[in-house]
Amino acid sequence: MKIHFLGFLFAFVLLASCSDDDEQVYTPTPTPAAAGFTWRENDPNGAVQTAPTATFSTQYKTMIVKDSNDATLFEINLNGTAAATYTVGPDNAVTYTGINPFFVADTGEVIISSNANGKVSGTFEAFRGGSGLTRIYATFTDVTVVP
Question: What number of H helices and E strands is found in the chain?
Answer without folding.
Answer: 1, 11
